Structures are given as structure tokens and as C-alpha cells.
Amino acid sequence: MSDLSQAIRAALLTGDKRGKVKATRALVRAWRRGELESGWSVAMPDRPRWPGGLQVLPPAQMPKRGRGGSERGRIALWHSLAHIEFVAIDLALDMVGRFGAQMDEAFTADFLAVAADEAMHFSLIDRHLATMGASYGDLPVHDGLWQSAEATAHDVFARLAVVPMVLEARGLDVTPAMIARVEAQGDSRGGKILARILDDEIAHVSAGARHFAALCAARGMEPEIYWKKLVRAHFSGTIRPPFNDSARVRCGLSRDAYTALA
């Protein structure tokens, strides 16, 4: 029987988009059934593999999406969302594979569930792209999300502070307006996909905030103060309003903390 770290490493190093989704779903299912040992025998790769031929650019060099209501603009929007969800699979898997050995089983269960959700989100979006005659990999993407993983690879506190509590929390802020926009364009299916993703992201951010708070409590640290310190040190982007305060507070995020960094 292989252990969980081996299965996670194999999924991270699967570049084919359908292969990564399949490997992620399979390892989560196997772990839940007790078919994988909760072992940590191998290290995680510095970078996951992505589809061959995918053009990865620095964020500043990404082309403009085009007008939002145009077909080109719609494809660019959904392609960018596909990339976010594809990288989110790797972020969740790496969270478990890199830090699971020092955390409890609830941490492993929570972030494997996140990985399974992200795989489902990616599949929904890629299928939606197909209805527009497009596919993930057709357009350039940027490396900003994985750069945050690299910047926090040394510390589970930093990873939790930045990935679920900043990056995923940003999704809570922008998705409601995105739902309204795509529905106004007559894309009811797209609106339903985004609504499902928003519901799931609330659980993901909640998991990050919960485990961050538990770690802080175990080490006698004040969560709000330490979170702000970590974000200032390890997140190169900006935290800006408008904020979805109701969703953020529901997830256990402190309004005083995130508005202080805006």
C-alpha cells in the first residue's frame, strides 16, 4: 500500500489537466476508504506540473481580456477562472503533502476535501469553456498564485495566512458581482457554476481560518496580530475593498485585521 504523500506527489507531477483531476479524485477517495496510509515518506516537488504547451507569463505581461460582453472577453474570463481552479488543486494538495506530517488528521481531511472541490470546480469551468469553443490552455496564464505557494513553502502558518485567508478570501469578495455580470449576459449556467464555487469557497476559507487559529492558540499567539505580520512579510499583492464582510465574518476572519491591511 502506498502512502498519502506518494499519491499527492504523483498528482502534483501530473501535468495533463484531466489526469490531474482524475488523480486527485482517486487519491481523496482512496484515503477516505482507508486504502492509503497516512504516511509522509516523500517530499513534495518545488513546482507542480501543468499542461504541456501552457504559456505562463509574469502577471504584468498578461494581455487584456477584452470587453466583458464580447465572446473574446467571456472566454478570457472563464479561462482565467479555469486557471485559478486548476492551480487551486495543486495548492490544496501541496498544503497536505508539505505540512500534513506536523498537523492533525482533521487538517488532512479538510484540505483533501478542498482539493476534491477544486478538481470539481475546474471540471465544471472547463466544460463550460467547451460550450464557447474553447479549452483550458488556449490562452496565456500567469504564475502569481503559485508564487504565493513558493513564498510560504517553509511555514504552515504563512501558507494558511496567505492562501486560504487572503487569496481564497478574495474570491468571496469578487464572485457575487461576477455572478450578477454573467447572469446579465444571459449565462445562467455560468451563474450557477459560480454560485456553487462561492458556497464551497466559504468552507475552504473557514478551514484555513480555523486551523490558523488553532495553531496560534497552541503556541500562545494572538491570531489577528500574527496574521497581519505574516501577510505583510509573505504576500506581495494588495488587499483591497470592497469586502464581502458577511461571508468573511462567517468564515472566522477578523474585519479589523483585513481592513487594517487594505
Automatic annotation (TrEMBL):
Keywords: Transferase. The keyword Transferase applies. InterPro entries: DUF455 (IPR007402), Ferritin-like_SF (IPR009078), UCP012318 (IPR011197). GO terms for molecular function: transferase activity. It comes from the Bacteria. The keyword Transferase applies. Pfam families: DUF455. This is Rhamnosyltransferase.
